[in-house]
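ok posting inputs for the iron/sulfur cluster job
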Amino acid sequence: MLKQLNYDNLLQLLETISTDYALQVPTLLADGTRLLANYGSGELSLTGPPLQRKPTSAFFPQTELLLTIDVEGQVHLPQPEKPVALFGLDRTDLAALTFLDRFFCAPPADDIYQRKRDRALIISLTGSAGPERSFLPLTEDNCDIEMSAVNGQYLALGHSELGQGFLDGFADGDPQQLEDLRRESAQQVSPAELLQQASRLLSEERVPDRFWKEIADKCILCSGCNLACPTCSCFGVQDRQSGHGTERSRVWDSCQLDAFMREASGHNPLGSEQLRTRRRIHHKLVADVERWGELGCVACGRCDRACPVGIGMLAVAEEIVRRFN
Ligand code: SF4
Ligand code: SF4
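and the output
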């Protein structure tokens, strides 16, 4: 189902969605940053740089209550919340969501994550939606509605039954415009090629330990790379006690931190920054490929933008290829 929406139609669609969903949309902050925020909480931003907050945090938030045990020992699960709708994801955002879905929903599935994902509505935003209306390539059907900005209008392709239901009643879109967008998307150069080369060099063990020492010496252990990354899935479990009982939550962890794998005995299999930095890169470019058949990095660039010392994934991959290819 292909439809065409003007700006007012788009607002009407978002308004309709927001009645039944906790809708997050691209929102402009005063400093120019764009991020996904609650619909109506700020200025809707339909073009510009990538969204800084990772969209996967809507389903795997930084801190998440898992259960409460009351003073009598009874276990209470959190009440289900409104289903989530996300609007404005680009191709890399959707690739990250697909990656995380596979991780959390592989048997034994993480039922907290899966419940949220099963009820969610996902809408991408591509076409002339990048910085200064530059072109963002189309996604790969892994969303409910693909919205593409073209000539001041929005071409809306319903991929799922849920998405198509929301598009009912809007004017039909022009299939030729969609073909043109697809052709332009196919011509885009992806940074994934660089990552594939780095992955191959790592698999062939062409990267010596001294490289990791050099990179790791720059790291200030801020954990920004992991916190920004939409495919990172590590978490720790925390119990907090109050007069009402115990709350158990999960909280994002970071493989750059010293305590990441430290055992109760004090032994730490990742006891140096060198080992941890190697692991951060190696895990996504080699271990994930061995386990899932594809890179664990979707080349979104968030860790590169977050890292204050310039050793995000794309920077390190570029250095690996430059020095060891
Ligand atoms: S570019 Fe960085 S933040 Fe983005 S997916 Fe790859 S490792 Fe994660
Ligand atoms: S963002 Fe950079 S400096 Fe901070 S922990 Fe990650 S690699 Fe180290």
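notes: The two ends are 46 Å apart (CA to CA). Residues 2-60+80-186 form one domain.
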